[in-house]
Amino acid sequence: METHGELHRAILNNIPDQAWLKDTESRYILVNEAFLVACGRTEAEIIGNTPDKVWSSEWGKVYLATDRAVVASGVRRRYEESRPGADGTPRWFDTVKMPVRDAAGGIVGTVGISRDITDRKRAETALLDSRAQLRQLSAYLQTVREAERTRLSRELHDELGQWLGGLRLGLNYLDAQPGAAPADQSAHLQMLKHLVDETIDAVHRIAADLRPAVLDELGLHAALEWLTESFAQHHGLPCDLAMPEAVTASLDSECSTAIFRIVQESLTNASRHGQPSHVRVSLDLRDGICHVSIADDGRGMDTARAAHGQRLGLMGMRERALMLGGAFEIESAPGQGTRVRVRIPARAPTTADTANVVSVTSLTNTTNETEW
Ligand SMILES: Nc1ncnc2c1ncn2[C@@H]1O[C@H](COP(=O)(O)OP(=O)(O)OP(=O)(O)O)[C@@H](O)[C@H]1O
Ligand SMILES: [Mg+2]
Q1: Residue 311 Cα, ligand 1 centroid: separation in angstroms?
Q2: Do 199 and 167 touch, CB atoms closer than 8 A?
Q3: 268 C-alpha vs ligand 2 centroid, how far in Å?
Q4: Residue 352 pLDDT
Q5: Nearest CA to ligand 1 atom 3
Q6: What's the pLDDT tens digit per position in 216-230?
Q7: Which of 134, 171, 235, 338 maximizes the CB count within 10 A of its CB?
Q8: pLDDT of residue 370
């Protein structure tokens, strides 16, 4: 039969938290195995000694003071502390100390339990960081939306307004001159047709800037071809695209949009910050993962500094990749060019992505059925 002492010890040694018992002078009477592991000493070095002899002097003094406070006040104390763990790396502990009383109610010592809460603390810190990032991102999205509205309103006003105003004037003229010579009327009609063409072009341009129809209609390959070609033309900067056309069929609309926007932001960054002489966009599908790379030979950057900056283009790209279960990394150094690499698990297009096609086929397939 085990004695009570052995039973107590078995229980104590089976709890993962550090546990100890001390007398009123703060001398250790009993400690469990988790305690030995945490302080990296043997039982013989601990029992009978005070904390300042067991722990590094700084922590030992703190423990001595809290023990005294518990003995003097008779009140339980609970606090969180950060100190180096057995391997020297910083860890967090949730510690409770309380008085032990004899039958008459007199304090005869203290008992303590200390729980390692490092993982929880890390998760809390990561959560706070990601909340802060989300707040930044949502503020950024608001700003972007306002900027987009301003740009759209300016383009509608300056471009469409101009062409439609011209059309109205031309129609007024024709209306006011019903008896004008046919040649004059014909010249005016030609001018009005020209204005209508310009208006149609402007509508196409504004719509394509908002969301390139080619992405929805012809898929990612065609959309990236359009993007890299118009980028090269607009910035006078050679921009290659290496991408097997077949990849398009393996990506649903969300993946395609994310990749398109990531490439778009990377190209904007390259021309805005890198001043490269060449940009290369490549996209490949391996083992169900879509690998995207946008590399420029520009002046590069200090990635640590860029990661801590307040700008949000890079953060937006990272969020897009993470939201789809992917990964984002940036390889760069001053004078070494920049390479953005993204991996996104490929997701095959769903029915919703091909809704138009499906509805046409289903109509054709069901025409002979009784309900039709
Ligand atoms: N291709 C690149 N070459 C050199 N520096 C770059 C490149 N891409 C990004 N950077 C650096 O990283 C910083 C952060 O880029 P990010 O896209 O997040 O912000 P931004 O382009 O300055 O502003 P925005 O929020 O409008 O995108 C940039 O300010 C720039 O200093
Ligand atoms: Mg940017």
Answers
A1: 7
A2: yes
A3: 6
A4: 63
A5: 274
A6: 888 999 999 999 999
A7: 338
A8: 31
C-alpha 110/C-alpha 96 separation (Å) is: 10
- DSSP for 273-341, written as a single string: II--S-EEEEEEEETTEEEEEEEE-S----HHHHHHSS--HHHHHHHHHHHTT-EEEEEE-TTS-EEEE
User: Distance (Å, rounded) from C-alpha 339 to C-alpha 329?
Assistant: 8
Q: Decide which of 156, 182, 210 is a domain's last residue.
A: 210
Q: So what's the pLDDT on residue 264?
A: 94
Residue 236 in any domain: the answer is yes
Assign residue 90 a region (left: φ > 0; alpha: ψ between -120 and 50; beta: otherwise): beta
- Residue type present at position 293: S
The alpha carbon of 160 is separated from its chain's Cα centroid by a whole number of angstroms, namely: 38
Best substitution site from 235, 269, 299 to test ligand 1's pocket, by max atoms within 8 Å of Cβ? 269
* pLDDT under 50: residue ranges of the chain: 1, 356-372
The residues, ordered by sequence, that sit 6+ positions from 330 with a Cβ below 8 Å of its Cβ are 303, 306, 314, 338, 339, 340, 341
Query: Is 93 inside any structural domain?
Result: yes
Tell me which residue range forms the domain holding 238.
214-351
Q: If you search the block for the tokens 């991996």, which residue do you land on?
A: 343
Q: Decide: 121 and 92 in contact? Cβ < 8 Å.
A: yes
Contact 273, 298 (CB under 8 A): yes
Q: What is the DSSP letter of 371?
A: T
Q: Whose CA is nearest to atom 13 of ligand 1?
A: 306
Q: Cβ–Cβ contacts within 10 Å for residue 67, how many?
A: 24
pLDDT at 300: 95
Residues 79 and 149 in one domain: no
Is-contact 248 257, C-beta < 8 A?
A: no
pLDDT of residue 102: 94
- Could you tell me if 284 and 198 lie in one domain? no
Q: Is there a domain that residue 366 lies in?
A: no
Q: Is the CB of 301 under 6 A from ligand 1?
A: yes
- The bound ligand whose nearest atom lies closest to the alpha carbon of 295 is 1
> 223 and 340 share a domain?
yes
Task: Give the list of residues 6+ apart from residue 24 with CB closer than 8 angstroms, or none.
Answer: 71, 107, 108, 109, 110
Atom nearest to 314 CA in ligand 1: 18
- Which ligand number lies closest to the CA of residue 267? 1
pLDDT for position 156:
85
